[in-house]
Write a structure and sequence with these properties.
Elements lengths: L17 E7 L14 H14 L3 E5 L12 H17 L4 E4 L3 H9 L4 E4 L9 H8 L3 E4 L17 H18 L7 E4 L8 H9 L12 E2 L5 H6 L15 H13 L4 E4 L2 H31 L1
Parallel strand pairs: 1-2, 1-8, 2-3, 3-4, 4-5, 5-6, 7-8
Bound molecules: pterin-6-yl-methyl-monophosphate (PMM).
Pterin-6-yl-methyl-monophosphate binds next to strand 1 and strand 5.
C-alpha cells in the first residue's frame, strides 16, 4: 500500500539548485562504507543532513563503487526500508537509490518520494513500469553496466555527445514504459564507466544534458576524479575520499551556476552554501542578459 493515498508527490523544486544528502547503508561504499550500516545511526545521520540543509535525503543499500559485487534483494530491503521509514517519520523528504524495482516499490510504499536508479531502468526490466505505476520522479543516470566491470566500459568517441545520445535512448525507453516525461531527472553518471578526463569533459559539457528539458542531477561527491586532481604532488597518491569535500562544494557551486536541479553530496553543509553561491551567480547573469537584450531591442 503506497504512502500516497491520493496523488504521488510532484518533482520537488526549490528557488535554487537543491541539495541531496547521501546516506549509504552499506559496509563497502567508497567514502562512507560501514558508517551508517546500523539503521538507527543511519536515520540519525539522515536527519542531521536534513538539519544541515539537505532538501532531500538519498538512501542506498547497495554499493556501486567500482568493482563492487551485488547483494541480494532481501539484504537490500533489510538495509534500506527501516531507514526510509525512520527518515519519513522524522519529516525528511526521502529518495531511494536502488537498481531493483522491488526495492523501489517497497521504499515508495514507506514514503520515499523519488526513485534514484543509477542504471536508469536498465538493470531491472521491471523498474520503469514500477516508476510509472508509483508516479514518483525517476532519475535516469547514464550507465553502461554493473560496477564489477564498468571501468572496462569507458570507451567513448566524444564523451558528452555519446552520453547525451545514450541518456536520450534511455529516456525514450522509460517514457515508452509509462513514465511521465515531467518526472524524469537526468544525471551524467560521473565515475560510472568514465575515466577521470571523461568526468571533467562531462562537467564542462553539462549544458548539453539540459536539451531534454529534464532537470539535471550532478553526483560528483568525493569521486575519484577529484582525488586525482588533488593528489599529493610528491607521491602522486590521490587525496583520500574523506578529504575531498571542499572540492565537491566547488563542483556544487559550478553545477548550480550551470542550472543543475540538484547536487548529490555526502557533506551537506559545504554544498548547501555552495549551491546558493552558484545559483545567485546564475540569477545575476540572467538579469544582466535581460538588461542587455532590453538595450538591444530599444535601439
Ligand atoms: N553516485 C553514486 C551512487 N548513486 N546516484 C546518482 N543519481 N548519481 C551519482 O553520481 C551517484 C548515485 C556513487 O557514490 P556513493 O557510493 O558515494 O553514493
Amino acid at each position: 500500500m503506497s504512502a500516497y493515498k491520493t496523488m504521488p508527490p510532484a518533482l520537488p523544486s526549490w528557488d535554487r539548485c537543491g541539495v541531496m544528502g547521501i546516506v549509504n547503508v552499506t559496509p563497502d561504499s567508497f567514502s562512507d562504507g560501514g558508517l551508517w550500516l546500523d539503521a538507527g545511526r543511519a536515520v540519525a545521520h539522515g536527519l542531521e543532513l536534513a538539519a544541515q540543509g539537505a532538501d532531500i535525503v538519498d538512501v542506498g543499500g547497495e554499493s556501486t563503487r567500482p568493482g563492487a559485487t551485488r547483494i541480494t534483494c532481501e539484504e537490500e530491503l533489510r538495509r534500506v526500508l527501516p531507514v526510509v521509514r525512520g527518515l519519513v517519520a522524522g519529516g525528511a523528504l526521502v529518495s531511494v537509490d536502488t537498481m531493483r524495482a522491488q526495492v523501489a516499490q517497497a521504499a515508495v510504499d514507506e514514503g520515499a518520494c523519488l526513485i534514484n536508479d543509477v542504471s536508469g531502468g536498465r538493470a531491472d526490466g521491471e523498474m520503469a513500469r514500477v516508476a510509472a505505476k508509483t508516479g514518483v520522479p525517476f532519475v535516469v543516470m547514464h550507465w553502461r553496466g554493473h560496477s564489477g566491470g564498468m571501468d572496462g566500459l569507458a570507451d567513448y568517441q566524444d564523451v558528452s555527445a555519446d552520453v547525451v545520445r545514450e541518456v536520450g535512448r534511455q529516456i525514450d525507453a522509460v517514457v515508452s514504459a509509462g513514465v511521465d516525461i515531467d518526472n524524469v531527472i537526468v544525471d551524467p553518471g560521473l565515475g560510472f564507466a568514465k575515466s577521470r578526463s571523461d568526468d571533467w569533459d562531462l562537467l564542462a559539457g553539462i549544458d548539453a544534458l539540459t536539451q531534454f528539458g529534464c532537470p539535471v542531477l550532478v553526483g560528483a561527491s568525493r569521486k575519484r576524479f577529484l582525488g586525482t586532481l588533488l593528489a599529493d604532488p610528491c607521491s602522486g597518491t590521490p587525496r583520500p575520499a574523506r578529504e575531498r569535500d571542499a572540492a565537491t562544494a566547488a563542483v556544487s557551486a559550478l553545477a548550480a551556476a550551470r542550472g543543475a536541479w540538484a547536487v548529490r553530496v555526502h557533506d551537506v553543509a559545504g554544498s548547501a552554501d555552495a549551491v546558493r553561491v552558484g545559483s545567485a551567480l546564475r540569477e545575476a547573469d540572467e538579469r544582466a542578459q535581460l538588461a542587455r537584450s532590453a538595450v538591444v531591442s530599444s535601439h
